[in-house]
Write a structure and sequence with these properties.
single chain, 274 residues, alpha+beta, oxygen-dependent coproporphyrinogen oxidase, seven-stranded antiparallel beta sheet, two-stranded antiparallel sheet, 9 strands
Length: 274
């Protein structure tokens, strides 16, 4: 398949998924609506850009960001050493969708999803789904991972074990000696077969669309206390630490001329340290 067609198909899917997810969120919220912001990577020449949408202070979502981007250009000499396929040429193209949800109700976990397609001298997919509950609920954890396993198994019986392990290793705070949440799936540099990989990436996106809705409908009616809200604020502090210290997407965006507001939309509106 032609490289430009691959880029177009991936880019179009990420944009469609952004619209689909935002529609579901606004339907759950009722009155609260997204504020949309378009941005360009470079104001002097065409290097792409994106659109970030943020909804704040809703009845369900304290803050949720749904970001789409399509950027291209050349990596800096320093940064290209970290990216595969740039030894002979620093050119790159990247598109993706990134979503972070911070909830009003501490019983509803923070949720994160992203998928992306990056092309240098060759292309690959990456992404995943993970959740960060405030409270340890074995029943919920088992259900969540069972749903992810079902999605993975539709494509390859080996995917779930592999991508769960990669998620546990990736979302880990070494300075705290703890994981960020209860894990999920995480994959990167996925380039076995483009059409099969793309089908998997789309399925992961549709799985997240179903999962976040099911989680909210199941947990949002639970009564919460001021003490539980304080626990949520502390948990958010850990979330911030990971995103600013270790997250690849944050570093990639900031070091390739991405929009700062879009990149940092993952940060919660209120957090505390103790």
């Amino acid at each position: 398949m032609d490289i430009e067609l691959k880029k177009k198909l991936a880019r179009n899917w990420f944009k469609i998924l952004q619209d689909m997810i935002c529609y579901e969120i606004e339907k759950l919220e009722g009155k609260a609506k997204f504020k949309s912001n378009n941005w360009k990577k470079n104001k002097k020449k065409d290097e792409g850009g994106g659109e970030y949408r943020i909804l704040e202070n809703g009845k369900i979502f304290e803050k949720v960001g749904v970001n789409f981007s399509e950027v291209y250009g050349n990596f800096s000499e320093k940064f290209k050493k970290r990216i595969p396929g740039t030894k002979k040429d620093s050119k790159f193209w990247a598109s993706g969708i990134s979503i972070v949800m911070h909830m009003q109700n501490p019983h509803v976990p923070a949720m994160h999803f992203n998928t992306r397609y990056i092309h240098t001298s060759y292309g690959w997919f990456g992404g995943g789904i993970d959740v960060t509950p405030c409270f340890n609920e074995k029943k919920f954890k088992n259900w969540f991972h069972k749903e992810l396993r079902k999605t993975c198994d539709r494509h390859n019986k080996k995917f779930y074990k592999k991508y769960k392990k990669q998620c546990d290793e990736y979302f880990y705070l070494p300075h705290r000696n703890e994981t960020r949440g209860i894990g999920g799936i995480f994959f990167d540099y996925k380039k076995e077969n483009w059409e099969k990989d793309f089908n998997f990436v789309r399925d992961v996106g549709l799985t997240f669309k179903k999962l976040f809705r099911d989680i909210i409908l199941n947990k949002n009616k639970k009564i919460w206390t001021k003490k539980q809200k304080e626990i949520q604020y502390i948990k958010r502090g850990r979330y911030i630490e990971f995103n600013l210290l270790y997250d690849r997407g944050t570093k990639f965006g900031l070091q390739t001329g991405g929009n700062t507001n879009a990149i940092l939309m993952s940060l919660p509106p209120i957090a505390k340290w103790k």
